[in-house]
From TrEMBL:
GO terms for biological process: L-phenylalanine biosynthetic process. SUPFAM superfamilies: ACT-like (SSF55021), Periplasmic binding protein-like II (SSF53850). The record marks T171 as: Essential for prephenate dehydratase activity. Signal peptide: none annotated. It comes from Glycomyces luteolus. Pfam families: ACT, PDT. The keyword Glycosyltransferase does not apply. This is Prephenate dehydratase. GO terms for cellular component: cytoplasm.
């Protein structure tokens, strides 16, 4: 099993990949951008990819979502949620720092600290926190915002710990594969979808949400992304609690298929979350669905009941 991940070595992505059960015995190859990781999966050069998708403070990693919404189909087979603790890594004391570099998400998560403590420093974007740290070690910039383990790996002293504006910030990473059957249901799963609605139709999004709500499907995230066709053309990226194998999820997917211009299934996978699973409401369990199906069969005279 071979994984590609957003590198270089020392990124938060690599730290999260080490926690993924499916990657325990896998080889892991760092790549320099998210599209490179996903294209290596699409081309079959690796078995799987691992990339960030969402941060609790800064929101979506749009490159990842746009690749999943619009590129050749891929599916998500797993997720890891990792606390992201940032440090200021530099050989210089904070008052001597003129330039600071990091990944745009890490810069956004430390915006308050940087404005308060380094108001005159020029901020530069890097491809990842680890690349920023390496460029500081190489003398290109004065300071990097990165993980404590990254600073240590490149031999940079830490000038300030825990500089994130929100100390409980987490980033969610996804394990991505070519279209394949999902892992077995665990009772606490997410199904990701992209729905393309008919344009200029009153209530189109409400109709999508209704198909989910009446089957007791809970949304943990909804995101609209431009399709690129024209202004006002959006696709909706949905994370729903439940698994493709659940009767209510199957019914909801069929409902969406009937009313949407297109539906892209992006995988069902175990949720990395300590919260209790969202239970199906009364009358929407798999048992309730099979009971109702048996009843209908009996009315039609087609069942065994
Ligand atoms: O630069 C890294 O270390 C990454 O793994 C990328 C990334 C991101 O894209 O959000 C991951 C976690 C942090 O939120 C900041 C950066």
């Amino acid at each position: 099993m071979e994984f590609a991940y957003l590198g270089p070595r020392g990124t938060f992505t690599e730290a999260a990949l080490r926690r993924l059960p499916a990657a325990k015995t896998a080889t892991a190859t760092p790549m320099s951008s998210i599209p490179e990781v996903l294209d290596a999966v699409r081309r079959g050069e690796v078995d799987a990819g691992f990339v960030p998708i969402e941060n609790s403070q800064e929101g979506t990693v749009t490159v990842t979502v746009d690749e999943l919404v619009g590129g050749d189909p891929l599916v998500i087979a797993g997720e890891i949620v990792l606390p992201v603790t940032m440090v200021l890594a530099s050989h210089k004391a904070p008052d001597a720092i003129a330039t600071v570099a990091s990944h745009p998400h890490a810069l956004a998560q430390t915006r308050g600290y940087l404005r308060r403590e380094l108001p005159n420093a020029v901020v530069h974007q890097a491809l990842s926190t680890a690349q920023a740290a390496q460029r500081v070690a190489d003398g290109e910039f004065d300071a990097a915002v990165c993980a404590p383990f990254t600073a240590e790996a490149v031999g940079l002293p830490v000038q300030a710990f825990n500089i994130g504006d929100n100390p409980s910030a987490v980033t969610r990473f996804v394990h991505v594969v070519r279209p394949a059957a999902p892992p077995e249901p665990t009772g606490n799963d997410i199904t990701s979808l992209v729905v393309y609605i008919e344009h200029d139709q009153v209530g189109a999004l409400l109709n999508v949400l209704t198909e989910l709500a009446i089957r007791g499907i809970n949304l943990t995230r909804i995101e609209s992304r431009p399709t690129g066709e024209a202004l006002g053309r959006y696709a909706f990226f949905l994370d729903c609690t439940g698994h493709l194998a659940d009767a209510r999820m199957g019914e909801a997917l069929m409902g969406l298929r009937r009313i949407c211009a297109d539906v892209r299934y992006l995988g069902s996978y175990p949720r990395d979350n300590a919260d209790r699973p969202v239970q199906p409401p009364q009358g929407l369990s798999d048992a309730a669905f099979s009971d109702a199906a048996a009843w209908l069969d009996s009315l039609r005279g087609t069942g065994n009941a």
